[in-house]
Design goal:
Number of helices: 14
Structural class: alpha/beta
Strand content: 5-15%
Largest sheet: 5 strands, parallel
Distance between the termini: 44 Å
Strand order of the largest sheet: 2-1-3-4-5
Shape: globular
Number of strands: 5
């Protein structure tokens, strides 16, 4: 999560006219009295608005699936998954990236969240950062981007210069690019190899794209990372067999996952996990294939970490 410098704000000609054409910025006169409604009525109204988001995502599932397959192909060759966005979109990318190591035991730097303005922008606004495609280029240069990497630009409007600039620069370097926006006909989707436009409509509070647009982005980013990790063999069925047991809750979860996968007795599970230095996948393989921890490690290395393949090899 990085950004190398700040940039001063420059007026963008015609920006107000651009915003007026965006669905996410549309004013809804029927909600002009929302501040005078009872709290429960506002809550019901907001909840009803949110129910439209999954349907909007569902309409884009073919594009999402195609992007996932392309990302997984690159990551299987050692590539990285990089999110780039500003404001809420950038924070959601940082969130998704930060959750991959404990959930899927991804290597440091394998999934990266870039936010315009750098780490400070996660908790506060950084003036003008989102308006700079140059910042995006500098942030990607700091990663030494390669053709095996994927850059996902995230922007509700689909026009944020930082996100569009990241996608255009990454594509010029031969990296795979995905553009996730919440308006149709967006500049961001057009700039990417894979454009995903989840159109959720005008927001409850005009222009507050942390609402339905943010929810849609969160759902799609969950899909991109989670399904990619499934494709990479980071799960066994729906079990998080690559979970990193970094605290007591996760250690308990590790034991439960081994139990669900193997049906083994508690004492056997403890011994297998101890021998495997806490590695869930190794412990499962050792128990199911009746091999020692060293053999389990070798089989998994030969199978590129894919438990099903390692089990098949163990059983000959």
């Amino acid at each position: 999560m990085t950004s190398t410098s700040r940039t001063p704000r420059h007026p963008h000609p015609g920006l107000r006219d651009q915003l007026e054409t965006l669905t996410t910025e549309a004013f809804r006169p029927e909600l002009a009295e929302i501040d005078r409604m009872p709290t429960l009525e506002i809550a019901r109204l907001m909840n009803g608005e949110d129910t439209a988001v999954p349907a909007a995502v569902a309409a884009r599932l073919p594009e999402i699936a195609a992007a996932v397959d392309a990302v997984a192909a690159r990551m299987s060759r050692g590539g990285r998954l990089v999110y780039a966005g500003a404001g809420t979109a950038g924070r959601l990318g940082v969130l998704d990236a930060s959750e991959c190591p404990p959930t899927f035991n991804t290597a440091p730097g394998q999934v990266v969240g870039l936010i315009a303005g750098g780490p400070e922008a996660v908790v506060t606004s950084v003036e003008g950062a989102e308006d700079s495609p140059e910042l995006a280029r500098a942030d990607l240069d700091a990663l030494a981007l390669t053709a095996d990497d994927t850059v996902v630009g995230v922007s509700a409007s689909g026009r944020t210069p930082y996100a569009v600039g990241a996608v255009r620069y990454a594509r010029s370097l031969g990296a795979l690019t995905v553009g996730l926006a919440c308006n149709s006909g967006s500049e961001l989707a057009a700039a990417a190899d894979h454009g995903i436009e989840v159109v959720v409509g005008p927001e409850l509070i005009t222009g507050s794209t942390r609402l339905k647009s943010g929810t849609a982005q969160k759902l799609v980013l969950n899909m991109l990372s989670t399904i990619t990790m499934i494709r990479l063999g980071k799960t066994y069925g729906n079990l998080m067999v690559d979970v990193r047991a970094s605290n007591e809750k996760l250690r308990a979860r590790s034991r439960r996952i081994v139990a669900l996968a193997t049906g083994a007795a508690d004492d056997d599970i403890e011994r297998a996990l101890d021998a495997a230095d806490g590695e869930v996948k190794h412990a499962i393989l050792a128990l199911l294939a009746d091999v020692d921890a060293a053999t389990a490690a070798r089989l998994l290395e030969d199978s590129r970490g894919r438990l099903r393949s390692a089990l098949a090899a163990a059983h000959g």
